[in-house]
Amino acid sequence: MLWWTLRQLKSKNQSTRRMAAERLGVLGNTRAVEPLIEALQDKELSVREAAANALGRIGDERAIGPLTRALTPYGGAIKEAAQALPNIGGNRAIDALIGALKQKDDYVVYEVILALGNVKNPRVMAPLIEAMVRGVSVGGYRERYKKFAEVLKPFGKPAIDSLVDIIKDLSRRGRGNAAELLDNLGWQSANDVEWTYWFIAHEYYKSANRIYWETCQSKGTAAFETLLPLLGTDEGVYIYELLLMTGGGRAVELLIGELKSGRFRESAARVLANSKDHRAVEALIETLKSGPQPLRKAAAESLSKIGDGKAVEPLTAALLNDDSWEVRQTAAEALCRLSEARAIRPLIAALADKKLHNSGGVVRTLQRMLEQDVEKISVADLRSLASLNSFVEIGQHSDKCGWTYEREVDCSPLKQLARQELIRRGLEA
Hints:
By secondary structure, this protein is mainly alpha-helical. The chain has helices at 2-8, 14-27, 33-39, 45-58, 64-70, 78-88, 90-100, 106-115, 125-134, 141-152, 157-168, 175-184, 192-201, 210-218, 221-227, 236-247, 249-261, 265-272, 278-290, 293-306, 312-321, 325-338, 344-350, 359-372, 379-386, 412-424, and strands at 391-398, 404-410. The protein is elongated.
């Protein structure tokens, strides 16, 4: 009987109150609405949850306000209140749920999103997408967006079109969430431009997975034009190499501009090493002559990777005259890689630099040149090599225990090879 069940709702026993609320929901009598609204304030969570469920089953609009107030971090019956409102139906209930999507509490928003999956009214689509794209931190990311995609599926193409518009807006936050929703909705890009927007939204340009990079490269000009607006933003440093891969000569011009006055000049210098373009060589040489210390170092590294003979003289000048030992060392390493006869004299001079940490590499390079390209070496350079001390001091160094000691590099193989070549040429060693 209704009167008895209502009386049980006031019982001192928690289980009795909970079962009474459940029973009232089954009965569906509107006379129980007010007592159930009061039960939403019960000190026991299980009773509040049962009351919210019962109000949803009865479907009386008087419950909309109290159920809406339950959609707070401290409401306690958030999930049940969210599920109850769609069962009541009507514009007031829908408006209450849409309003709750703007709350800052992630759990409230999460439960409201799932509850709106039961509402097929088209006007909830845009607020739903906005909340999903904004993101909530509840549960696992992948599983969460699978559930969200199920909520959006009934809206079909309009929902997909809205999400595509979001990933195309490069100033919009949450584009990665929109791309994840598209993935779970089974979306396929219509063209290379759309694919590139999807690639950007997922931030795959930061990924170490080269498969995505290779696919992006295959998109060519379409990808280049789509990536271009990221240049000059905080993300620009990540796309230099992709621009070079997709834009070719056009990208070289842009990267030279970035090298001269961009925000990430060192990164531009390093990426230009992959261009093998003579314009890049000229720009890097200019930077090596006049750029700040970190940039001069990056320019020296890139010039060595490009391997253009034009770089030998500027690198030699840097090795002999630069005021930074790091730049001098990088220039020495670059000349080692170039392995040109013109580099022998500055490399010999570099052995006298006690701050040079790669003296061993200099010796190995000179030895390799003596073994492989000795015919290209002049008599004067051979005599310089032959007159080297067998062991050249390369400065003081400290070990982990704090002991300071003199370090030496063994130049005797250079002396021997140089003397052998001089004798072979019929000259005095």
